[in-house]
Prior knowledge:
Elements: H1 6-10, H2 17-24, H3 34-138, H4 145-160, H5 169-197, H6 209-225, H7 227-249, H8 265-270, H9 281-293, H10 295-298, H11 307-337, H12 346-367, H13 379-407, E1 418-422, E2 428-432, H14 435-455, H15 459-482, H16 510-540, H17 552-586, H18 600-619, H19 622-645, H20 652-662, H21 668-687, H22 694-701, H23 709-718, H24 723-739, H25 743-750, H26 763-789
Antiparallel strand pairs: 1-2
Helix pairs in contact: 3-4, 3-5, 4-5, 4-6, 5-6, 5-7, 7-11, 12-13, 13-14, 13-15, 14-15, 14-16, 15-17, 16-17, 16-18, 17-18, 17-19, 18-26, 19-26, 21-22, 22-24, 23-24
Amino acid sequence: MPSRKPVDMFDSEVFDPTKLINQLYPDEASLTDLDKFVTVLEKKIQHLDQERFNAVRSQGGAHARARQDLTVAHGQIEELFTKIRDIQRKSEESEVTVQEVCQDIKKLDYAKKHLMKSITALRRLAMLMAAVTDLEASCDSRDQYRKCANHVEAAHQLMECFQQYEAIPKVRSIALRLAAVEARLQYAVLDDFKILIGGPANDGLKMPPENLERLATACLVVDVLGKEVQDQVMDWLCSREMSIYQSAFGGAVGMMVGATATATAAAAAADAHATRLDKFEQRFGWFRERLKEKREVWGLFPPHWRVPQMLCLAFCKITKAHLKRILSEDDDSDAGGGGGADSMSATEARRRLEKFRARVKAEQQQAGTAVARISEAFEGVLVQYYVDQEERELLGALDGAVREEVERRWLPDEEEGTRTSPAGGHGCCRTRVLQSAKKIFFRIRASLTRCSEDVSRGPTLVALAQLFRRVLSGYAAELMRRLPKTAAGGTSANPAVVGGSTHWYVRLSEEDERVVCCLLATAEFCRDETKGLAGALAKAVEPHFADRVDCGEVENAFVGLATACMNVLVLGINTRLDGPLLKMTKMKWDAIKATGDKSPFVAAIRKVLLDCAPRLGAGLEAANLSSLCDKVARMFVPRLREAIFRLRRVADGGMMQLAIDMDADLPAFTTYVEREMGHVVALVKVLQSRPEQLVDNYLLLMPPAAQSLMEFQRLCDLKALNRKQQSDLLGCYQLKAGQLGGRAGGGEAGGGTKHPSMMTHGSRTLCNSSLVLLMLQLLLILLLPMYLLL
């Protein structure tokens, strides 16, 4: 028997009979079971045939059943479609029915809505007719004002519903009836106000309580009649009160609110004492007492009528007209008789005006809407008298300040005129500001505060701003007048060639240099203060006058003054340097056989710069000092170059001497600074070394005077080495330093050396010499290409 079941082989898709036989019977000995194997295969074939036959027979019966099931399914589907069509038809019929029902409901809704509107309109029309009828019945009875007010208010509310139906005759007739009733009611109310309150002649009579109640109810009627009737009542009331006011103080002028008030000449003459300007404050006292006296009557009016405020406005208007007339009469009397009506000085008049304005301002703050109602009358007088007085005082202060500066020779006090400001990175620079500038701006600020707070923020302040500009422009002109000038009288000029005209010279003494520095500092101070003053004026003045208080011209004047000061300093320094240049052109350069350290003209240039540097360094700020150096170099270097081209017959010795002069050493302190900075640079390079190269680089790069065991120990600590590395490096350093001749020991014993000359000079000398250093550096940089061309 084979070792495997052949069934698995027969089921394979890649069955190979030959291969199967070879596997089952590999040799002749295995053929002994061949008959049995054949018998098994035949039985297997018979079994498979039987299974195939059964499968075919069963499949034939299933096909018939499937056909029968499919027929049944088709019948059920057709029945289902029939039912769906029935449902769809019924739903369409239901939708039509619903639409018909909804259409009927919508018609009913519209009918109901229109019916409700009609009922409401009829009810309102009936109520309106009833209200108008009741109003017609009660309008003639003046003791039923409250009832009339209610009827009018109800009628107005109902008439709002019929505004779109005014074209209907019935509604139009009711509206005409209501207008006629309101006209009758308006006449009755106004007549009652005039009767119950009374005219000016009945002012002192006390009103009975029943009349007060009647007035209160009449106010209710006026409220419902509208704003126009209320304005008529207020016009009559203000006219009555102002008539009493004018009869008390005389001088009826102008148009009042709603009526024209007059006063007889006899009354004006009787009250002439009250028309004086110094008696003007009595009017405000009278008005305050009047408000207190009539407080009970004014309290009857509704609060939203603002009766006291309206009376205040009318009072302000009449008082303003009186005030203008009084001031115009005073002007006429001054022009005709040469003196004031009250014979007071301008200063006293200004003081009283300021006092009166302050009081009016306080009352205006309480009145709210009465701002500037009366004080506007003073604007013309204030511009004429107040500003004139301020001008006299400010110009007097300016003249006095200029005289004081002349007495002090235009030099500030040591303590008061000093302003400290940064100068570079070290120390400070003392900037001098003249005391006259501070005094003038102090007075201007005080005048501005006084005018804006107590006098006016309108045309008077604008006129005062113009005065400030004139005063500051005059002060700038005085400072400009003090500046040293050229022969032509200017502060700037183009220098002539070396040896040419001297019209551009500006000869400055030491005192002149200090004065010019002070003028420069003062000009910058005034420029900054003027900018701040312009901002303060713009904030203080009324917004529509803000464009009339600009101080740009004054700022430009002080900027021009600062520029002129800088130009004068530049011309002054170049005037001094012109002598050494002239000496340079007169030297015999062809006779020089042996070169020296420097020529006489170089020493002269250095002397000039060293002489003026301390004064300019102390008197100028850092920015101005740097700008001055640039401008001096820009003016001097071209002239030096021109002077070199004017030289004749320069021999080899002279050319070498000129090269030495142009490449001269810088001052001693520069060498010291460079040497000390070289030590620092070498130390940084040593710190960048690796530990194994640290000793060699230290001995190679560090100067001998800076080498010591202690310094090397500090360097090792700075590199954050561990103790073993530090111990090894210190031993190596001592060994190599000993081999180099004890250089480390000598350095440790000697310590560091100090420059002999620099230890005797303070930081002040360094700061003052910076000007010389900067100038010489610029000269060397610009002249080196010229020397190469020669």
